[in-house]
Amino acid sequence: MSLSARKIQIGRKTYRLNAVLVGWSLLLPSLAFMIFIFVIPLVQVISLSFSNFSMITGTGANIGLRNYRYLLNNDRFWNAMFNTVKYAAFKLTVDTTLALLIAVMLDRNIPGKRFLRASYFSPVVVPVVASSLIWIWFYDPSVGPFNQILSFLGLPTSRWLYHENTALLSILIFSVWKGVGYNMILFLSGLQNIPDSYLEAARMDGATEMKVFFKIKLPLLRPITSFIIMMGVINSFKVFTEINVMTPDGGPLGSTTLIVNYIYDQAFTSGRMGRASAAALLLFVVIFLLTELQRAINAKKHVDLV
Amino acid sequence: MTSVRKSQLNRRPWLSTILLYLGVAMMLFPFVWMILSSFKTKADVYAYPPRWIPSTWSWDNYQKVFDTIPFLRYYWNSIFTSVVQTFLQVALSITAGYALTRIEFPGSGLYRRLMQSSMFVPAVVTMIPLYLTVASLRLIDTYAGIILPQIETAFLTMLLMSFFASIPDDLVDSANIDGCGYYRVLTNVIVPNSSGAIATATLFAFLGNWKSYTWPLIITNNTYYRTLPIGMKYLVQESSSEYQVMMAASVMAILPILITFMFTEKQLVRSVTLTGMK
Question: What is the pTM of this model?
């Protein structure tokens, strides 16, 4: 009997021995990376979060729940969390609305449609650091074009990234510019999947475009909308690069310090690996709860429909 | 009925067109500004009223980038690490994706679940222990230290699995009858029949690796190993905020990507809509 035909039994199932050998040999490299860059670090971060391990001394001892207690009573941690929630709320509202608006307009008989679609999408593919450099200049209070235009028009100028009231907003405007094309593409593909017959039937019955949008397009886009909102929330909790480039010190009065920037600071500026690990795990819990919440809401909607 | 339809098709939505082109002017303005400004002199930058078009067109700012920072070194580091990472990620995703969709063996379901859960955990959670491990292996400021911890394959594997699963069983069966084993099926049937998907996956992985920021930032102290994004972040300080020089560097970092994007826009857009991948 040849090797390839031999069978082995594992549990209740029988496998071809050859399939088992080939399957595992093909999977092994991926599995090795998965273990070294995901499984092991995940176990380590939990144990680190209960220690006061410091990068400066290179040692640490178990201190139980002290990191967690410190963080939950710490103003700077809550400030970073609160900033992140503000960021997420603004980004979701503005980004999603604009993306939907652009997609709906693009989904018509527009001249130069491909050029428009590609142009709205182009900031998405560009490296964030490179485009951040352009915007740092835009926001310069004295030689930045934004203030120059405002003062030319006789309007009050702003200190943009350099004032605690406007710093986070400045970064948000940049984020919307950078990300709106991505959600627009998703909405556009959703709109193009709506059968023309639905829309025509409604128009036949005399529905206005406004009504067609709210009664047909928007409800049919719901799976995409909820996907965009979920990804928007999760991604807002992961933002780091543009903050780190545009306001390396966390912004005036910490006004642009988001949660990942806080973790980075604790770990790599102050060397407090234990505390940073605990903060990272708290972030993970928040993201996990948000995804579960979103899933529950979706499941409920599904039941309602059926 | 036909008349209604015809008028719908013929009527140009002028208001939408105007709004969309106004919007696009705003979207593209930063790029136009960047290119124009990369030729400006320092006096142009500080001129009031603002000067939009450079007074003289010179390549001085580009020269200055190379004089201020080891730009070519950064560029090479980015190319090298991105290419190696992309190659490893795609190769691993092809083999794993094939095994998971086309071969029945114990443990495949478990790996699939592991892969899915790894996508829910933000990178910052595993970053700290990973950094300590890399440091203890003395891999800080090495290519291995930059590359190996970034070989994440979950998303690419899932993407390729969806394509591999759609290859008709008949193709595989007839290859089996011709005497092809598992490995020959992979190289002679699966890969040639999903070359488009593999190309798109490669492009996506490359763009992601090219922008990669956080990990190279923490793992490089020595300027010799900085990748382009890290070098550009420090350029802000090292050029003492000479904006025209920063713009020249941005042009050189952005232009190759924008040109690649122009030629591959259709595939990229399609795979975004297929997967929601970023």
Answer: 0.91
